[in-house]
Amino acid sequence: MYKRQILQRPLTLGADLVMHSTTKYIGGHSDVLGGCVVLARDDAFGARLKQEQLLIGSVPSPFDCWLLLRSIPTLPYRVRAHSEHAGLVAAFLNSAVIWLLLQAEFLALTLVVVYVGAVMVLWLFVVMMLDVDVEKLRQGFTRYAPLGALIALVVAVQIGLVVHVRKLGLGDTAAAVVDRAADHSNTQELGQLLYTQYLYPFEIAAVILLVAIVAAITLTMRDRPGQKVQDIGKQVAVRAKDRVRLVKMDAEARQ
After folding, report:
1. Between residues 227 and 29, which one has the greater pLDDT?
2. What is the rounded distance in angstroms from the CA atom of residue 12 to the CA atom of residue 32?
């Protein structure tokens, strides 16, 4: 379990020792190869491990230690983001199962391929590119309270409409789900609906997705403070005399 450093703490549950792979989530950048052992107490077994480590020499290099110290502060944020994204993927997969139960296999596959495979990646990409100052957002929370209350009211109204769906004339929708023949194509029916009754909403959704893709690319191309980029032309044109200077000094007498 790679995320147990944050989501699960075996030492607090009574474990005597825990082994972690520093190559995985602790390192986080695929540039460290190693592992670590964490003991619950300093006893005779811990002293034996320290002695074997001293004799065998199984210790990381100073540079590897620096890489781990660089990665540990971001570990909680990376695990939190991965957990949230896993929850969203699970929600999409649950929705796909519902479409399968409704005999709409094409919609189920589309939900998995498009939303899980494309929209999720695009959303994650945009979130990673944004420089969000969480502290400033928390300080200005009261300013956005009316807007948040309005959005909550809209959501509550929508939930109420779903609960009272029979009043909208959609109460017999479940009865329309019947068994079809093996050669029935719901893809053809969906195509006829999309390109006849819902042509304009379909085209608008496609334009919105295209704008989202362009916006994600634009976010990556913008200049951010402290951003470090490579200039291949300067790297190729570099000369040794511009990087290394040999200085000749006379030997000094020892005091």
Report:
1. 29
2. 27
Say if residues 107 and 99 touch (Cβ distance below 8 Å): yes
Q: What is the largest CA-CA distance in the chain?
A: 101
Contact 123, 132 (CB under 8 A): no
Phi first, then psi, for residue 177 (nearest 5°) are: -80, 100
Q: How far apart are CA 5 and CA 36, in angstroms?
A: 12
Virtual torsion, Cα 177, 181, 183, 187, nearest 10 deg? 0
Long-range pairs, 206-214, Cβ under 8 A, ≥24: 209/119, 212/122, 212/126, 213/122
Does pLDDT of 170 surpass 60?
A: no
List all residues 6 or more positions away from 37 whose beta carbon is below 8 Å from its beta carbon: 17, 18, 19, 20, 49
- Whether the predicted pLDDT of 67 surpasses 80: yes
pLDDT digits (tens, 9 = 90+) for 74-87: 888 788 777 877 88
pLDDT digits 0-9 by tens, 115-142: 777 666 666 666 665 555 556 666 666 7
Residue 4's pLDDT band (cuts 50, 70, 90): low
The tokens describing 171, both together, are 């109460």
